[in-house]
Each structure stands twice: as structure tokens, then as C-alpha cells.
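Q: what sequence does this backbone want?
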């Protein structure tokens, strides 16, 4: 998220919340958004783990 766009993106995030949203709802949505963006940046930088490796580490069958 480019810092110049943060304010607008937060406005859009809040605009999509229900009218009875709580501060916890707001913070949760921001945290999820941030985690996704961090993951995307790491993936683009080749720092991610592929699905096959992750499934093996978690002991899941393919």
C-alpha cells in the first residue's frame, strides 16, 4: 500500500463496514489488510514458501 493512498484506502475500508461496526471490527479489517499486503510483497520478492513445501511441513497430504 503506497503511503499516499493509505488515507483513501482506509476510507474505502470503513465505507464497506456495516453501520453497527465496532472499533474491534475496524482494527481487525486493517490488520487483515496489512497481513495480506505484507504476504504479497514477500511473495513478489521470492520470500514465500510454495504450497507443496508448506503442505509437507504441516504434514498434510497432497
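A:
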Amino acid at each position: 500500500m503506497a503511503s499516499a493512498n493509505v488515507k483513501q484506502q482506509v476510507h474505502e475500508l470503513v465505507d464497506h463496514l456495516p453501520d453497527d461496526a465496532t472499533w474491534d471490527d475496524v482494527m481487525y479489517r486493517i490488520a487483515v489488510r496489512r497481513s495480506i499486503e505484507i504476504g504479497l510483497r514477500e511473495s513478489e520478492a521470492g520470500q514465500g514458501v510454495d504450497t507443496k513445501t508448506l503442505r509437507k511441513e504441516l504434514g498434510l497430504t497432497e
